[in-house]
Amino acid sequence: MEVELLPLSLDDMEEMAGIFNHYVEHSFATYTETPVSMARFEGLMNFTPGYPAFVARDSGGSLAGFGLLRPYSPIPAFDRAAELTCFLAKGYTGRGIGSMILQALESGAVELGIKSIVATVSSLNEGSLRFHRARGFVEQGRLVGIGSRNGRRFDVVYLQKML
């Protein structure tokens, strides 16, 4: 499937929130239990100007997914670390799109002098854990049983990739 990576724009936000809310309702890929408004979505994503952020669109113009990096922490000691968020639309997983987005984000991170990318993943989200591990992320720790969603306890797994 042909997809094109484009810089994320404000015009993409509604479709991105739709993808995110699909996972809210049908998976454990998010920590929220109910669909989020646009304002809440923007707050959750914490978009940061100057950091790499992309959308993937298929040949018909449909949003296949999105990914972005943001500062890991506002504390200057962590300036060389970024946190990753990446979601694919239903039906677009397993086609290499996530890998394409991640590679573009990593290239952008290197240009910014970022040396480490961190992802936090629910222990109930096996697909995301497999995705990250297969692309060089290493589990560096977990907060055991810290979360609860839809009546199920979960760990927050900290994954890191050094660039």
Please explain how this structure is put together.
With 163 residues, the protein is an alpha+beta fold. It contains four helices and seven strands. It has a seven-stranded mixed beta sheet, sandwiched between helices. Strand 2 and strand 3 form a beta hairpin. The longest helix has 15 residues. The chain is globular. It starts with a strand and ends with a strand. The model has no long low-confidence stretch (mean pLDDT 94).
Which key terms come to mind for this protein?
alpha+beta; 7-stranded mixed beta sheet
The total strand number stands at 7
Give the fraction of residues assigned to helices. Answer: 25-40%
Give the strand line-up of the largest sheet: 1-2-3-4-5-7-6
| Secondary structure tally, helices | 4
Element-level helix/strand string: EHHEEEHEHEE
Low-confidence stretches: none
Structural class: alpha+beta
Largest sheet: 7 strands, mixed
**Computed Rg:** 15 Å
% residues in beta strands:
35-45%
Span between termini: 28 Å
**Coarse morphology:** globular
In round numbers, the mean pLDDT is 94
Secondary structure layout plus pairing:
Blueprint: E1 3-7, H1 13-26, H2 38-45, E2 53-58, E3 63-71, E4 81-88, H3 97-111, E5 116-122, H4 126-134, E6 138-149, E7 152-162
Parallel strand pairs: 4-5
Antiparallel strand pairs: 1-2, 2-3, 3-4, 5-7, 6-7
